[in-house]
Amino acid sequence: MPQVVGHGHVRQRDRLAEMAAGSGILIETRSHYERVSSTEQSLNLRFPRGLLPLGTAELTEACARNVDAAAPAMQMLSTYLDRLFDAADDLTGRQRLDAGRAAIDLLAMALRDTTPSVPGGDGPAQVLLDMMRTHVRTHLADPQLRVAELARRHHISVRYAYNLFERIGTTPGAYIREQRLLTAQAMLSDPRYHRLTVSSIAGTVGFLDLSTFERAFRRQYGMTPAGWRREHRCSRSLPWPCYRKRTQPHSIDQPHRDQSE
């Protein structure tokens, strides 16, 4: 959450972080936090916890810690988000999704400069986990991509695959499903794909059975894929990860559930 102008404070996990101009603070919104701010204008990046390539312990330690505005990675992230907000309306749904993921990669770079060392947070296991996540995102259309197949392609056991994904608080199967649904959501919101049927989009992201896709989509987003398309076809709503510019002052923000900011 890079701060643009103004000042304020965020309290979470018994830590109080100052929001200064150009700095950034990570908030885990499924846990209680308070944001006490005077005049502020900030760029906010919201995304599911599992998208950030940090282990669970690393992510917990990163919450409510100030990221130095002078740090090169933070400067890159601030500049990128500022330009991304200005260009967002002209991007397609899939381009927004890719741009949001790029922002999360920059955020991870900035956080690694400030997060205290956590056992198990680095090393070959983390590299392997990052490779597996990248593989999932680039092979969503492959209907054979399941947990066992993902483990086989990376020459590890299924049990070890589960151990690796525990680092980001999820399972391999849940991560694959989440990425498929995120991409389907972006396509349903994108006017370029308005001629594709819901069934075609389901197949494009690796769901062979339409009813399975519709059930999973409803559980994730609270409506059917067709209902999502009708509601967002003419809007500029952004799929996760999403980004927005906050301009109004805040006193205390109540936490949202199951997201990180």
Automatic annotation (TrEMBL):
<feature type="domain" description="HTH araC/xylS-type">
    <location>
        <begin position="130"/>
        <end position="231"/>
    </location>
</feature>
<dbReference type="InterPro" id="IPR009057">
    <property type="entry name" value="Homeodomain-like_sf"/>
</dbReference>
<dbReference type="InterPro" id="IPR050204">
    <property type="entry name" value="AraC_XylS_family_regulators"/>
</dbReference>
<keyword id="KW-0238">DNA-binding</keyword>
<keyword id="KW-0805">Transcription regulation</keyword>
<dbReference type="InterPro" id="IPR018060">
    <property type="entry name" value="HTH_AraC"/>
</dbReference>
<protein>
    <submittedName>
        <fullName>Helix-turn-helix domain-containing protein</fullName>
    </submittedName>
</protein>
<dbReference type="InterPro" id="IPR020449">
    <property type="entry name" value="Tscrpt_reg_AraC-type_HTH"/>
</dbReference>
<keyword id="KW-0804">Transcription</keyword>
<dbReference type="Pfam" id="PF12833">
    <property type="entry name" value="HTH_18"/>
</dbReference>
